[in-house]
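Complex record, two chains
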Amino acid sequence: MSEANANEPRESVIKKSEELIDWSRRNFLKFGGAAAAGLTVGGLGIAGYQLGHSDKAYIGASDYTGNEQFFDRTPFEVDIAPGFKPVSKVERPHWINFFIDRLSVVGTIAAQGKWNPGMGLNAMPGPVGDYYRKRPENYKILLKILETLPKQAKIYQEKKDARYAIADAYVWSSMSTMYPDLDEIWGEMTVPQNPVTSPDSTPDKWDFRFIRRKQPLEFKSPKHASDLLKTVAHKFGATLVGICKFDPTFTFTNYMRGIKDEWSDGPGINPGLKYRKGREVWGTEVPSHWKSMIVYGVPMHWDPLLSAQGYSTSYDAYSRAASIATKLERFIQELGYPSRPQNPPTNYECVMPPYGALAGLGEIGRMGLLITPELGANIRLAGVITDIEFEYDKPIDFGVIRFCKKCKICADHCPAGALPKSDEPDTQLRGFKKWEVEGEKCFLQWASGSLRMPHGCRVCVGVCPYTRKNTWLHTISRAADSRDPTGIISSGLLAMQKGFFHVPDAQDFKSDWDGGKEAVYHNPPKWLRTEEYFKVNKDWTYYGND
Amino acid sequence: MYPNGTVVYMLFWMAIGIFQICIYNSINYWTKRYNPNSKWWQVALLYCCVLSFFIVVFAGFTLKGEYEGNAGWYMIGSFGVMHVIAGAALVKLFVLKNTKKKYA
C-alpha cells in the first residue's frame, strides 16, 4: 500500500470501495443483460436446431413401452367417430370396392388367358367386368396402368438404378419379411423368406389352430384384458394401440382368406395363399367368435417417408406391423382364445382405418387415411380379431376433419389428382359422407414412380401438416388446436403452413419420364443417397427442402 | 449430444434461466434510469416481449433442424421483425416517455 493510501482516512477508502462495487454492479446491469440476451439467442438457436434435428423427435422409432402414445384422448372422446354418423342405409364394402383386389383379379384373369386389354371392356369377365362397365372412365385409367407397369420397370433398369439403388433395395428387403408367401410377388421372387402366415382354411379352424387349453384363462375383468393386451402389443413394437368392439360394418362381404376361389390359381398363376380369398365363394357371414378388434399402428420410417415418392416405402412399417400381428395372434391363442390377424399389405378381411377411428386412435382425414395425434397420417394399421371381452376405447374427435375442410394441402399437392378438393365430404359412401380417393388415379401414380415396381406414393402422407416430428413446436400447436372450438388457431396455423413451408408443386413430384422433376418434400437422408456410398455417376439434382 | 444429453441438458437450461434473470434486471435498470416512475408491469411487459422474441428464434431454428429451412427463416423473418417493432413501441411508450419532458 502506498504512503498516500496508507494515510487516507478509513471512511474514504470504504466509500471508494463501495462506489467501485456500485459502479461494477451498475455496469453489470447495464451491459450484462445485453450479453445474456446474445447468449440466449445463440444458445436457443443451437438448442432449437438440435431438437429439430434429433432422431428422438421421431415418434415410433425406438420405444416399446407405450410412452409414445402420449396424447391424452379422454377429453376428446365421443360416442360416434367423426364422419361415421350414417346419412343413409349403411352397407358393408364388397371386395370389388378395394382397388388392389380389383387389380389383382384383372392380373389373374389375364394370366389365366380369360381376358386381355385387346379384347376390350365388354369381354372382361366376372365382377371386375361388371364394375368397370359401370365406370368406363376408371377402365381407361386401368388400361393406362397396364401400359405403364412394364414401362416403369424398363426405365428403372435403364436410367434410375444409379440414383435409387439403396431405396429400391430397402423396399425389397422390407417386403421380404412381409408377405406370407413370396413364391410369386411381381413374378420375381422364388424363395419364401417370411414366417408370417396367411389363412389356408376357414376361420372356425384357422383362428383356433394354436389353442392348446381346454378352457381359456379367465381374465379378472375386461379392464385387465385391455391392459394386458395393450401392454403386450406395445412390447411387440406397436406404437399406438386401441381396442374396439368388432363392428362388421367395415368388413368385406363375399370375401374370406383361406378359401379358394376362381381367381386363386389356374394356368399362369403360381399357387399361393395370398390368392385364396374366397371371393364370391364366401357370403356375408361373420364368424361368431369375431367379437373384439385390437387395432394398432406403427409409423413408416420418417426420413424416407418425407422423401416421397421416390425414396419412400410403406413396407418397413408393413413388415413390422405384420410381425406384430403374428406374435399377437399367437399370444392370444396361447391364452386359450381364438385370434385372427388383419395386417398389411393385403392380409385383411377388414378395412382398417374405420377400426382405427372406432378404437380412438385418430380420425379419418381427407386422404382417406387415419390421422392420429402422435403420428399424424404416418401410421400403418393392423389388428387382431378375437373373442376376448375388453374394456373398449371410445372414438375421439380432436379436430382433424374440421382442419381437413380448410387445409386441402394433400389434395393440392397430390401428383395423381386423386384426392377430392371439396370443402365438405361430398361422397355418400356406403351410408356415410366421405371424401373419396380415386383408386385408379392413385395407383397410376404408383405405377409412374421412380422405383422399379409400383410401391406406393405417400406424398399426401408426407405433406400433411399433422405428419410432423414430435418437437415442442408441433406438439403445442396440435394440443392447442385440438382444444380450440373457434377454429382461430387452426386458421392461423394453416396460414403459416401455407405461407412458410415450401412444398413442391403436384406436377413436380412426378418422375422425369412422366413430365415431373422427381421432387421430394424433404431431400433424402444421406443413407438413401447412392452417391454417398457407391461409385456412381451422379447426374441428377434434388428438388426438396434441406 | 448437446443439448439432448442428460447433465449438459440440465446445465444448459439452468444457464438460460440465469441469463433471463440478468436480462430482466438489465431491463429494469435501463427502464428506471430513463423513467424513474416506471411501473413493475411495464418492465415485465418489456421482458415478455424479449422472451417472446427468444421463443421465435427457438422455433425458427427448431424448424431449420427439421429440414424446414424455408419455414424457419420465414418464421424468424416475419415474427422476429414484428417483435422488434413491438419492442421499439414499448420502449417508446414506457421507457422514453418522460425523456422529452425531462430534457425540454
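Note: Chain A has 16 helices and eight strands.
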